[in-house]
Amino acid sequence: MSDRTLCGPMSCVVSKGALSMAVTALVAACGSGDVRPDDAADSVPEWVVSDSASTTIGKVEGSAPQLLNRVADATELPDGTIAVLNGDDPRVRIFDRSGEYLRGFVSTGQGPGELTRGDGPLLVRDSTLLIADGYNRPMHRFGLFGEYIDQQKLILGGGRYPWTAWYEPGFLIWPHHALGFEPAVREVLGGLAPVDSLSFRQVRVSQTGLIWIGALGRSGTTSAWSVLDATGQVLGRVRLPEGFDLLEMYDSRVLGTWRDVDGVEFVRTYEFAGEIPPHAVRLEAVAHELARAPIRRTATDSVLGRLRQLSRDVIRAQELAYPGNGLRYVSDAADLAIEVPDGFELLIPSADERGFRMILSHGSGSAACFLAIGEQHAYPGVPSGTSMCY
Does the CA dihedral 287-143-207-178 come out positive or negative? Predict the structure, then answer.
């Protein structure tokens, strides 16, 4: 099998390795959020998402359990109900598929089975629910009806916690369902075309072992995704509703958060008209073939140090600009009184009166820093003000 050339809008590279036989070359179209193959585009089906949500959880007015704010995570349980971890009140709330509140458990505190924070994530493992309690605290394990079992402090290779994202050049991988599959995910990403700018792609792994890749839009959410199997074959493309923040992916639907025009938060599921091909290879099928490997470190200390200093400079510039910008943080990096050195790039995906997200990248794609100020803008499982540099 000959090597294959993968071309993006700004560069071409040659892909090598066993998985490249099945990889359809993907590129990120700068600014569009699309990820698309370089050939046979018509052969990749569009999985059309329904116009209306199949489940809506949350209300504009109602009893406290039905009012959501700063949802940290949500997931489907084996019986079809949906568990929601609300960040403002670190308590797990269980809803049925019609959106009706059923029960809740977990209280605030520092004792067994109590949470000090509501950062998430929620992980379903072996008919139990694991709940992360802040960035570096143990995960509490509950039965699906709320009975407390024990707590575990899970640490992965390289000292990472299970909810800590990791960075590969051009990709930010959210880890929720990638646990144990890191080498397989890394192998697939290694066969894709690099991204030369801040049109970097974020990666999520579905509950069913498929890989979703999309570019972060300036709204702070990603609407266009490509779905790949464990060989790198593109199974379909999905465009999600505007403003829908993806949390979980299943074979026939997606689950995430959405806000109305008044900023009221809801958890929603949408069905899509897509059929997973029977030949699709799940990550479980290839994970055992790849030895667990440490996360590669591609950036030098000097580059990481410069990125961290630039992060602090951006925060100071945002605070100085806030009063003169109508008591809002600046959303266009060009309007900040800060000089970004050659070889570095700054993107502000979202900003308002409550905070902002920012991404700083070394131009070669070898390193990046992700930081959010304000709980409404925080990255999943990462407290506001915590900088993630890779």
Answer: negative
User: Who wins on pLDDT, 365 or 304?
Assistant: 304
**What pLDDT sits at residue 189?**
84
CA distances from 293 to 157, 165, 225, 290, 372 (A): 8, 16, 27, 8, 29
Residue 66 clears pLDDT 80, i.e. is over it: yes
* C-beta of residue 373 within 8 angstroms of C-beta of residue 322: no
Sequence letter at residue 242: E
Cis previous bond, 37, omega within 30: no
Output phi, psi for 122, to 5 deg: -105, 130
Token pair 């890779």 in the structure block, residue: 390
Average pLDDT over residues 252-259: 92
What pLDDT score does 60 carry?
92
CA 228 to chain centre: 16
In the three-class reduction of DSSP (H, G, I as helix; E, B as strand; rest coil), residue 20 is classed as helix
Digit-coded pLDDT (tens) for 128-163: 888 877 655 677 889 988 898 988 766 554 445 555
In angstroms, the CA 200 to CA 250 distance is 24
What is the C-alpha to C-alpha distance for residues 194 and 185, in angstroms, rounded to an integer?
A: 15
69 to each of 57, 65, 339, how far by Cα in Å?
Answer: 12, 11, 36
Nearest to 83 by CA among 162, 145, 164: 145
C-beta of residue 72 within 8 angstroms of C-beta of residue 120: yes
Nearest to 135 by CA among 387, 382, 389, 386: 382
pLDDT of 289 reads 57
Q: Average pLDDT of 46-57?
A: 91
